[in-house]
Design brief:
The chain is α/β, with parallel strands linked by helices. It contains 14 helices and 28 strands. Strand 15 and strand 16 form a beta hairpin. The chain binds flavin-adenine dinucleotide.
Length: about 450
């Protein structure tokens, strides 16, 4: 056994998102010491971030302390730290604070927004991936509304009230619908000065269909519904440049906009390593059917960081895939601990749901496509059930009642995003934690 502090096998998991957390919980009681590492002390329920961004729910309602979720798992420890580097050969990872050795490693570091080389997109486009991103979008939208009320120039006022969303996947559609609900409802009551000048919401999609992971007819329904509600939907429209004042389209048209939200590109993210590992599209790490890296059978990768083939097609990158893979990795690790070989992973697709807004959604379950209020209610139900924490669920319910029944936006606040601690402060707080976490320096 390679770690010096104990005789037990050590499994290190990087990332306490959907996949990593599920794997850690499924390893509860295993005959191994499990160390879960994340740069944040909380787990983020990413599917509800768009509701934070559109002032529907509090940021604290969609995050949950990792340590609380690990209560009752004495063999699983948590370390809040950034992992910078992995040495697959020596089986050591380098964190903010120390070097940690492992016998088995799980990469569950998720994805990141990519701006696909579009000039100005990284600087002026607002991504949505973390709680800080969601707060930044909310702050930005409210600031634009405040600026618009004090603006005397008609054209500039219209620009400040133009919200452009790049990317017609589920996140882009959800944001467009939620923004529309906000601008149609609470905005008019809060800003009577702006009532006669309606906000423009523009959704740009490079392909010929919204929600490209769902059947074409659902994409068509979504575009029709959004257009009917008042969203300007442009398909087969590529962005060439983003600037401080708007968006230049590849067809040569310029859209003056005060806000550009970027949901178009997702790529994998993982710590650096000296040794090269095979990667595929979006920079995802290639794994075999048992979810092990092709080069290192003691290293697994799951979720948005992994390129997992099923029926010769890659998985698309949604939470249920990461959750199910987390369970399978835990099973495989238990098998490896007993000297048995790991088993292949088979993803069971329970279906997909997407919310459009204004009491409408779309769904595709067991080959059956459906739309309207049923899909909308199912989406709310599924996300309510899966959100971790009783308190969070209760508060979510209250926010939804206020938002959907009274057309209000309860969290219209411009507040700073979460304040990260300085490295010095972090080292002090973690120094007392390290012996407990089973973390050793080598
Ligand atoms: C805006 C948005 C909305 C979405 N909506 C839905 C939806 O409605 N339904 C759905 O099924 N899917 C949705 N998805 C996709 C879903 O969120 C992902 O597929 C899922 O989160 C992947 O889980 P994961 O465990 O791979 O990564 P994540 O959940 O992203 O977790 C990765 C974790 O790793 C940590 N980490 C990363 N690098 C390091 C490092 N170097 N050191 C320490 N920690 C690190 C991060 O802090 C994070 O906690 C959405 C995605 C986005 C961006």
């Amino acid at each position: 056994m390679s770690n010096s502090s104990s005789q037990r096998t050590r499994i290190v998991i990087i990332g306490a998102g959907f996949g990593g957390l599920q794997a850690a919980q499924s390893l509860s009681g295993a005959d191994a010491e499990v160390l879960l590492i994340d740069r944040h002390a909380h787990h983020t329920f990413i599917p509800l971030l768009y509701q934070v961004a559109t002032a529907q729910v509090e940021p604290t309602q969609v995050v949950y302390p990792v340590r609380t979720l690990l209560r009752g798992s004495p063999n699983v420890r948590f370390l809040m730290s950034e992992v910078h580097r992995v040495d697959f050969h020596s089986q050591i990872i380098e964190t903010d604070h120390s070097l940690v050795s492992y016998d088995y490693l799980l990469l569950a570091t998720g994805g990141k927004t990519t701006f696909q080389g579009v000039a100005g997109a990284a600087r002026y486009g607002l991504p949505l991936r973390s709680i800080d991103d969601a707060i930044a979008i909310r702050n930005h939208i409210i600031t634009r509304l405040e600026q618009a009320t004090g603006e005397g120039n008609f054209q500039e006022r219209q620009r400040l009230l133009t919200f452009t969303i790049v990317g017609g996947g589920a996140t882009g559609v959800e944001l467009a619908g939620a923004l529309l609900e906000w601008m149609r409802g609470a905005m008019g009551r809060d800003y009577p000065e702006l009532r006669h000048l309606p906000a423009r919401i523009i959704l740009l999609q490079s392909g010929d269909q919204l929600l490209p992971d769902l059947p074409k007819k659902l994409g068509k329904y979504t575009a029709k519904k959004l257009r009917r509600l008042g969203v300007e939907v442009y398909l087969q429209t590529k962005v060439e440049r983003v600037s401080e004042t708007g968006i230049m389209l590849s067809e040569g048209r310029f859209i003056e906009a005060g806000t550009v939200i970027w949901t178009a590109g997702q790529g994998a993210t993982y710590p650096q390593s000296r040794e090269a590992v095979a990667t595929a599209s979006k920079g995802k790490v290639c794994v075999n059917s048992s979810l092990q890296l092709l080069e290192y059978p003691n290293v697994y990768a799951i979720g948005d960081v992994a390129y997992i083939l099923q029926n010769r097609k890659p998985l698309i990158g949604v939470a249920p895939e990461a959750l199910q893979a987390g369970v399978q990795v835990a099973k495989n690790l238990r098998r490896q601990l007993q000297g048995k070989s790991p088993k292949p992973f088979r993803y069971f697709n329970k279906g997909r749901l997407a919310i459009i807004g204004c009491y409408t959604g779309v769904g595709y379950i067991a080959g059956v496509a459906f739309t309207g209020v049923v899909a909308w209610l199912m989406w709310l139900g599924v996300h309510f059930v899966y959100l971790p924490g009783f308190r969070n669920r209760l508060l979510l319910l209250l926010s939804w009642v206020q938002g959907y029944l009274f057309a209000d936006r309860p969290v219209r606040l411009i507040l700073p995003a979460t304040q990260p601690m300085t490295k010095g402060e972090l080292s002090i707080s973690l120094a007392s934690e390290q012996p407990d976490s089973g973390n050793d320096s080598v």
